[in-house]
Design a protein that fits this description.
Length: 230
């Protein structure tokens, strides 16, 4: 009988515009090298789930052959609430202002995956809005910049409860509690190399040699673009 390393169930519920695309590229290379199952969801715009959708997703995740790492843009799921074994969570966040800037330009100009990417993402955006100077947007209180959604990150750690989407102390405190109890690491994008080293130390069967892969010339070139795109 094969003895699996602990933990053998890892979920990376990646926060948008926090460098996650670079990390997913790394994970694909690491999964091939270290023989773990990487499942990366292609659902990018559904972070909130009904109770039925939560159970279905958690069961699907639990049925992935171990060791596995599952990744998706989705608010924290409480597996134990439904008597399903809770996996270990990891995540990476960034300075909320930097995240707002990244999202602002991403909506207008897409990312490195294709020059026409922005036209596909926001086809209804008119030229004067697409090329609106961000300083004008902020100083003249355009809707997009007067409510820059700095609270966006917290529900990824607070969870699926409706109150998690209401900015306030309750959501923040619940998010902090979940981080303490369920997340092995929550890294900071501005310190990504240190985060990768810590992941290698804490999850060697997933992340051994990650920094060398990250520093390879091809990935560095892609990763520079990813700071604005993921």
């Amino acid at each position: 009988m094969q003895v699996l390393p602990f933990p053998s169930q890892v979920v990376y519920n990646r926060v948008g515009k926090c460098g996650s695309r670079t990390v997913v590229i790394l994970l694909r290379l690491l999964a091939e090298r270290h023989q773990f199952n990487l499942v990366s969801s292609d659902i990018h715009n559904k972070t909130r789930l009904t109770k039925h959708e939560q159970v279905d997703l958690m069961r699907n995740i639990s049925n992935i052959p171990q060791p596995f790492l599952y990744t998706r843009h989705v608010h924290f799921l409480n597996f134990t609430r439904f008597r399903i074994e809770q996996p270990v969570y990891i995540n990476i966040i960034r300075d909320p202002i930097n995240r707002f800037l990244s999202n602002y330009f991403f909506r207008r100009f897409g990312d490195w995956r294709g020059e026409q990417n922005h036209l596909i993402r926001t086809p209804g955006m008119k030229g004067d809005e697409r090329y609106l100077d961000i300083n004008v947007c902020i100083l003249e209180n355009y809707p997009e910049c007067s409510n820059p959604r700095l609270f966006y990150i917290i529900p990824y750690f607070c969870g699926q409860h409706p109150q998690c989407r209401e900015p306030g102390v309750w959501a923040l405190e619940r998010a902090k509690q979940n981080v303490l109890e369920n997340f092995l690491i929550v890294g900071i994008l501005e310190e990504l190399e240190d985060v990768l080293l810590l992941l290698e130390r804490l999850l060697p069967h997933y992340f051994t040699d990650v920094l060398n892969i990250y520093k390879s010339p091809g990935l560095q070139e892609d990763g520079e673009h990813d700071w604005h795109g993921a």
